[in-house]
Amino acid sequence: MSARIIMPRRLSIIVVEKDRDRALTIVDGLREVGEMDVLVIGDDIGLARRIAERNPDLVLIDAGNPSRDAIEELTLASAPMQRPVAMFVDESDGALTRAAIEAGVSAYVVAGLTASRIKPVLDAAIARFHMMQKMRMELAETRRALEERKMIDRAKGIVMRAKGIGEDEAYALLRRAAMDQGRRLAEVAQALVTAAELLK
Questions:
Q1: Residue-wise pLDDT tens digits, 29-47
Q2: Number of domains in the chain
Q3: Which of 1, 61, 136, 156 could disulfide-link 170, Cβ–Cβ 3.0 to 4.6 Å?
Q4: pLDDT in the model for residue 5
Q5: Does the residue 65 lie in any domain?
Q6: Cβ–Cβ under 8 Å, residues 8 and 126
């Protein structure tokens, strides 16, 4: 059984749609889903600034038949790393799909936008965005841990050479220094490496 996506009580959504009739259809479909603050933007001029000012929970783009450049412009303007972005297009195209996904679009839906598809698409976009955000955070944490490990190894090497001791003893000295100073081991290692580089 799949987990149900719980949306905030009042979701803030920006709809990017040039055609007025299609925009009204989308807004009506969104209102059927629940109570939402919806802003329709009908042109691309200043799109990034307008989205940043509004800071919505989600951006919904009805792109019709976009070019690769248009997809990249729309997705970059809607800041997909900061919020879920759902894009609707009229026809399938492998290259455009890849471009949208690479740009960070959370949901890329082919065959246009209908009222009945809005809720499941919003749910999917929000779920995928949170999943990708979690993966990015985990990747950043893994990279940070690896960098810290390298720094600690460099600091151990400096202590080993300076004191003529083994790796375990050098590590114990660094740990003791970190505890005495109330700092993290990586911070002490960084300070030692920086000092050693200054003294070269």
A1: 787 777 788 889 888 778 8
A2: 2
A3: 156
A4: 45
A5: yes
A6: no
